[in-house]
């Protein structure tokens, strides 16, 4: 080995050492709370050496996730070797995600923590590290497209939408296990997950008030705008007080601290949404009720981009959210889905085998992925987004109905 090759190998090894140290530190602390010095100490090098490989702490975070994803993808491809048919390949890829949740908890927690940090940072979506995440998700798209090309999956599926639904469901499963502790393991849900997914893509026909309140609301409205424009970590109580035109001390009359204010934002929104849904429950047809509920959530959130940005980036991807009391309010609202599903089962419109919690994850995961893409990455016109919402509604309903003719009948009735 020549001098140049030895030097290259040393650089590669050192870079890898820095990335591994960064993965551990960033998974234990947030980007804001960690620093280059502790990463350098963990790697056994001087602080200055890190800047030979990475521009700054944020750049290091994004590459740390990229490095972790490359390891995961390499291992996944080993699991898929020798599997030729797309249905088995898709099942194996989903099984692998659940497997690393349950069997490699330390590594999974590092991966999920890095994803939390990166996906809640707008700069990540223009960074080279994002391309690794895109490449990984594209791998599933290729499997789905193979299924379409080989006439195994429905020829009319939107591959990108279905991919987002699947990854969204898997994200929610991970959070349910690793963050909120709602379930102890995810592998036990494998058959239920595949039941939902194959119902979507299979070719067969069985798919599937007062002044004080006004002031509090004014503060929350100002907080949404400030958090959306500056980001939660950068925003200060003083910024919010100025935007709300109140004294800084007034804010502490209503909220204990900035975090309390952040988590009060969705609580208010979910309570208002739930109180506005009385009319919906006069609807007798479960399919119509399911579509109305899902459409209401999509359109309500998409109608307030500041709230959507704060909810997606600062709340939903904040690990503290899942340990907060407001998480129960969130689940209480989303659980309306489960009531609708049970009603549909009783009327023999929805399949008895549906796991309501898994369907909730499918829906919420799809919403998160689509809304993030619309908010940060895309330039879609409102009419394009509305059409995509309707397409998602069709896919979600297909996953639960006893027979596709139920959807056809529903369409006939509303025409």
TrEMBL record:
SUPFAM superfamilies attached to this UniProt entry: Homeodomain-like, Tetracyclin repressor-like, C-terminal domain
Molecular functions per Gene Ontology: DNA binding
UniProt-recorded name of the protein: Transcriptional regulator, TetR family
Keyword tags: DNA-binding
Annotated Pfam families: TetR_C_4 (PF08359), TetR_N (PF00440)
InterPro entries the UniProt entry points to: DNA-bd_HTH_TetR-type_CS, Homeodomain-like_sf, HTH-type_Tx_Regulator, HTH_TetR, Tet_transcr_reg_TetR-rel_C_sf, Tscrpt_reg_YsiA_C
Domain HTH tetR-type: start-end pairs: 12-72, 213-273
Residue ranges: DNA binding: 35-54, 236-255
